[in-house]
Amino acid sequence: MSVTSTTVERPSFLKSQIGGLPRPFWALWGGTLVNRLGTMVMPFTGVYLTQSRGLSITAAGLVMGVFGAGSLLSQLVAGVLADRIGRRATLSGGMLATAVCMLALGYSTSLPGILASMFALGLVIDVYRPASTALVADLVPAKERPRAYGLLFWAINLGYSVGMTAGGWLAGQGFLWLFWIDALSGVVFAVLVWRAVPETRPAARQASGGFGMVLRDRVMVGFTLVALGNALVYSQTMTMLPVAMTDVVKLTPKEFGLAMALNGVLIVVVQPLVSGWLGRRDPARMLALGLVVMSAGFAMTAYVTNVAGLAVTIAIWTAGEIATAGIAGAIVAALAPAELRGRYSGLFGFAWSLAAVLAPLLGGPLLELGPKALWFTTAAVGVVSAAGLLLLGPAIRRR
Q1: Cα–Cα nearest to 94, from 118, 122, 69, 114
Q2: CA 264, 266, 267, 272: dihedral to nearest 10 degrees?
Q3: 21-143+173-196, superfamily in CATH?
Q4: In angstroms, rounded to a whole number, what is the distance separating the alpha carbons of residues 136 and 363?
Q5: Fewer CB under 10 Å: which end of the chain, C or N?
Q6: Which residue in 301, 274, 281 sits closest to 366, CA to CA?
Q7: What is the pTM of this model?
Q8: How far apart are CA 226 and CA 357, in angstroms?
């Protein structure tokens, strides 16, 4: 009797985690994984510019700033394209353009050529994001969207973890390998989506114009501001956290890298197990809870003095990150009319691009004041964003 019960329950548990999603979604998921497995250039861009191309730190900073300027426009332009020419065409075209720009950057030797290639790369590298977000909203029923977006988040982290490891080894063999593998993974993603994912743009009501209709949606504008706060908090993991731990706490790069690996391990192991359960909770409240947990982890970072302490704080803010995975995308999908999903997703993505630019500009001066100034301010931004979510909660639930 107990054996029969076990055999019945186990498949239902597996189905609750990965079952019930349409086949085109899994093609999108597979393409996302392949693309992230090949994402090797961006984490090593600074090293490439200074070591392989011989640029000064100032010139490398200029190049990265040009990339950031392109990325600010990227998702806004892509949001309009996803609604006008279609999700599939925008995603596939964006990935092919990214592959071309990757190779152009890899073979550029002069500063003007590198600047032009980096701006173009920034302009196209995130074109796929609004289209991908809109595709999931079009393909997946509302109640399953948090789980679907969470699974995409898992694929991104799994692929990135492997890609980073392989990229570090390949960089020693020659940086050009990174550009070719990154470009090839983009082409595979484009072809897979073009062949296996149908066009889902609503045919009856194709909205014209730009972002006027989106900006008139006060709930979406409020949620975008909350997303900006969330992104400012999370962006510190890639901007000021490495600086604070190596320059202030005096951890070695190896110790810091070992501690940060915990973030990827926890996401890869835990996130698929809880995505179904998280998807059944109220999205605004769960996202607010995740932000508060993340804020607590970053506030504790002010007291880190060794690698064990850093690992504890990473585990805490990673738990908050897991709690928020997939929920923000589901909220955007719920707020957006079907014919405007690309633009709504583009505005949401713009908040993250803007945070990537603002986080080091704000975090640097705060860190100079001291670790407590940086991490307590970061935590305060997260708590204020969580409070904003709770205020928006009733309006989000009505949608």
Answers
A1: 122
A2: 140
A3: MFS general substrate transporter like domains (1.20.1250.20)
A4: 34
A5: N
A6: 301
A7: 0.83
A8: 17
